[in-house]
Amino acid sequence: MARLNREPMSTREEKSSSDLQEVQRSLAQRPTRKIRVGSIYVGGDAPIAVQSMCATRTTDIEATLAQIQLLEGAGADVIRIAIDSKKDVEALKVLRLETEANLAVDLQENYRLAEQVAPYVQKVRYNPGHLHHHERSKPVEEKVKFLVDVCREYDCAMRIGVNFGSLDPEERTNGEDPIEVALRSAEQHCEIVEELGFQRFVVSLKSSDPFSVVKIYKEFARIRPEVPLHLGVTEAGMLPDGEIKSRVAFEQLLALGIGDTLRVSLTLPDGEKNREIEIGKQIVRDVQEGRFRSVPEFLGKTLNVISCPSCSRVENGAFVELARKVKEVTEFARDYNITIAVMGCRVNGPGETDEADLGLWCGPKYVNLKKKTEKLGAFPYDTVIDRLLEEVEKLIAERSPLQTESTTAQ
Q1: Contact at 8 Å (CB) between 157 and 192?
Q2: CA 335 – CA 355 distance, rounded (Å)
Q3: Per the structure, how many domains does the chain have?
Q4: 277 & 334 share domain
Q5: Cα separation of 305 and 354, whole Å?
Q6: In terms of domains, do 108 and 127 share one?
Q7: Helix (H) or strand (E) holding 114
Q8: 314 & 171 share domain
Q9: Model's pTM, two decimal places?
Q10: Taking Cα atoms as reference points, which of 295, 300, 296, 294 lies closest to residue 402?
Q11: Which domain holds residue 285?
Q12: What count of other Cβ atoms lies within 10 Å of the Cβ of residue 185?
């Protein structure tokens, strides 16, 4: 795959113009391409689209349809559904008969399912970091061509979804800034897709750290101003923290005219997923009307509990309650710069828990407890909290409160 030569991040930042001048740009003057996603448009002069993802298992048709209707009722412009198997595909066919919502399919490890699901959705999302899972000997360019051909044939838009928790292992080297790896991955895949004559795509570059989100989106928008952008702080966690993290990133970016569609990723019970849409729409309204509510100093110096949004990939529904319990019982460590990641599935679980001081990667029956990349063991859901607290106490003994330098890799 061709590699693009770019200046180091520090040099590029020195050349950037004053953000204060850019803040004056109207959200209606974004210079990106305008693409169609079913019944709506994204980018250009189109309104910012707010979307969410079903948390139910796709094969549970009744529950998933109820969630689609819940999100539609809140005003979702696009609703994403995860597809991991042929059974999910069959369920999607039934769901398509029951709703006219704009559906996006989330392809994870098996990109080859795209051809089976494309006739029933308006958008296909793939993660460059997951294309290596199947047919490892096949060049990535050939896999992307397959996806582009499918989207073109079935009138689907595409999202190139880069995530810091699942970067392409062939692209990442030890010690390299994840921002540089993610930028390079996004640029390369834009290049591949465009060389195939396809421009109906958006790009996302998600991290659980809102400051990294701001940094990478600003740089990508400078390099590729024509590409529509999907904003997201992945694994933003529980309320109110999850809203604050999202606001920290979205308010800064939207004020610069960066961002054409967005999702607020929150850890919520199934019946409350509509709050992602409601909060997302409120953030957009606030920025458009000049109201800014985020408190950036809230982050980076104190306890930070990361948890992924509840979705259909969660291995055990007990994950949501476990995440809430972790936040509750670790409150005593709030004055310490400790990051704890509670991850509900295999997709971003490994990456995000590797980066955190302590990580809980939740499986169907057991929770894998980690200290950065070190595996501490697998524990039942009802006993892992006690073991976690032991590790938190050890970290507290090693650190002073209100440390200003983050010990987690960004």
Answers
A1: no
A2: 20
A3: 2
A4: no
A5: 14
A6: yes
A7: helix 114-117
A8: no
A9: 0.75
A10: 300
A11: 30-297
A12: 23
Would 8 be classed as within a structural domain? no
Q: Please indicate, yes or no, whether residues 283 and 215 belong to a single structural domain of this protein.
A: yes
Provide the β-strand partners of residue 378: 368
Query: Using CA atoms, how far apart are residues 127 and 347, in angstroms rounded to an integer?
Result: 10
Residue 124 near residue 161 (C-beta atoms within 8 A): no
Distances (CA, A) of 65 to 94, 106, 278, 311, 317: 10, 17, 19, 14, 18
Distance between CA atoms of 186 and 22, rounded to whole angstroms? 24
Whether 147 is in a domain gets the answer yes
Determine the 3-state secondary structure of 339 from DSSP.
Answer: strand
Longest Cα pair distance anywhere in the chain, in angstroms? 59
What ranges make up the beta strands (E) of 222-335? Answer: 230-232, 261-263, 304-307
H helices within 256-383, ranges in order?
274-288, 318-329, 349-355
Pairing of strands 40-42, 35-37: antiparallel
| Element spanning 343, H or E | strand 339-343
Whether residue 174 is found in the same domain as residue 304: no
- Residue 316 has a pLDDT of 66
* Residue 268 CB neighbour total at 10 angstroms: 19
pLDDT digits (tens, 9 = 90+) for 279-316: 999 999 999 888 887 654 444 567 888 887 766 666 66
Domain check: are 293 and 322 in the same one? no
Euclidean distance between CA atoms 252 and 218, whole angstroms:
10
Q: Are 226 and 32 in contact (CB under 8 A)?
A: yes
User: Looking at residue 18, what DSSP letter applies?
Assistant: P
Domain boundary among 297, 318, 333: 297
Tell me the pLDDT tens digit for each residue of 155-205: 999 999 999 888 877 777 667 899 999 999 999 999 999 999 999 999 999
**CB 167, CB 154: distance < 8 Å:** no
Q: Are residues 225 and 306 in the same domain?
A: no
- What is the amino acid identity at position 10? S
How many angstroms separate the CA atoms of 304 and 8, rounded?
29
Q: What are the tokens at 50?
A: 């707010």
The answer to whether residue 3 sits within a structural domain is: no
Is the same domain home to 287 and 363? no
Domain end residue (candidates: 253, 279, 297): 297
